[in-house]
Amino acid sequence: MKLSIFKVTFAYAVALAVATSSAEAADLPSFVHDGVLTICTAGDFPPMGFAENPGDKELSGYEIDMVDALAKQWGAKTDYVVSEFKGLLPSLESDRCGLVASGMLIKPERLEHYDAIAHFRTSPVLVVAASTSDIKTPDDLSGKIVAVEAGTNYEKDAAALNARLKAEGKAEMTVQTYPGASAVIQQILIGRAAATITQDTTAAYRGAQLPGRITIPYTYPEADSYGLYIRKSPGDIKALRTAYDGLKTSGELAQLLKKWNLPANATDVEQPK
């Protein structure tokens, strides 16, 4: 009788272990391979993700810390693949990485091809040199040179503004594109461009790094959200949302917001449907 009870107990333990293992496997997204989560990022978008010093191989930033924390929940390490912003989603499509994290806004046209979760609320702003006094609103960009990061929605915003200026009989902007956010800000500093369109997070960080040299004359009324993008998969997006919600519930995201001096309510976002 004792032997029979032992057999039953042992069989139950094995069954429980198998069930637990299966549950854990179900929660592990398919884009984590051999304990590694590969992330595509531009690595030039402080304070989200950036190299603190020229030549640094390790990236820093709020988004970097957050994705590292997500990977930890899956028992995985992170590997960051750095490329120009406009090449991030094509790299995701070609399976060079499993996730894109690079201050990329949630946009309907992107959601047609990829799944995403929103993780940070933000607004676009105009940035100009501190000495500039004749730019207060987007309409004041008429006839001026504007620098924007290539492949971003700022390009589309600039094109839409130019179309409106033209329709109103006003001079259009000259729009120049650059591969990274640092290069865009540099055009403002050297006087090659009058303004740029970027996000409030980036502008605030650059302002802290360049005290007294740049300013924000205008904040757009609409609010956007940064997202984490993956290839379309119902199971994977569920696993990603579960892991992200776990970071919010545990208070880890609140700690990261405080670490990077970001608004405490920035993670109060509405998820795309």
Describe the structure.
This protein has helices spanning 2-27, 62-73, 88-93, 108-111, 153-167, 181-189, 200-209, 234-250, 252-259, and strands spanning 32-33, 36-41, 44-45, 49-50, 77-82, 99-105, 114-122, 124-129, 145-149, 174-178, 195-199, 214-219, 224-231. The termini are far apart. The chain has two domains: 31-122 and 225-259, Periplasmic binding protein-like II (D-Maltodextrin-Binding Protein, domain 2, 3-Layer(aba) Sandwich); 124-219, D-Maltodextrin-Binding Protein, domain 2 (3-Layer(aba) Sandwich), CATH 3.40.190.10. By secondary structure, it is α/β, with parallel strands linked by helices. The model is unreliable at 1-26 (pLDDT under 50). 39% of the residues lie in helices and 25% in strands. A hairpin with a 3-residue loop joins β3 (44-45) and β4 (49-50). It is globular. The strands form three sheets. Strands 1, 2, 5, 6, 7 and 13 form a six-stranded mixed β-sheet that branches. The longest helix is centred in the first third of the chain and has 26 residues, at 2-27.
